[in-house]
Amino acid sequence: MVNRTSQIFSPWVIEDIHAKSDLGRYRIRGFSSFQKVTHFDDLTFLSTGLTRFPLEGYKEKCNTRTIIGGLNAKNPLVLDTPIYITGMSYGALSANAKTALGKAASMVGTASCTGDGGMLPSERKSSDKLIYQVLPSRYG
């Protein structure tokens, strides 16, 4: 094995690449991502499209309550906001992160999604509204 420094990859990433080549597959882990995480400061919300045109923005209330399945469902999904936490599997996130996202979604009145890694018991317990993601059987 040749050990050289890289201007692109950190030593930890290089070590991970070597481990993957030795194993013949990626390491199964549930604790991190190499991508830059988006922050809420990177988002811009234009809520005026959700209700009638506000005449005085600082005085007008904007109702963001969203009902999914309101016409035909026996138990429609009612969210306080039209934004929910998308599916991220246990593998992309740790158990603690998935539990924290479930608690956060419950606190703001929205839902979270399990992702393709199944549902953790702590995730189910901490989430008031949990969307279970079902995939085709190509993953085993």
TrEMBL record:
Segments crossing the lipid bilayer: none
Domain annotation Glutamate synthase: ranges: 67-140
Gene Ontology molecular functions: glutamate synthase activity
Alphabetized SUPFAM superfamilies for the sequence: FMN-linked oxidoreductases
UniProt xrefs under Pfam families: Glu_synthase
Similarity section: Belongs to the glutamate synthase family.
PANTHER family: ARCHAEAL-TYPE GLUTAMATE SYNTHASE [NADPH]
Protein name: Glutamate synthase domain-containing protein
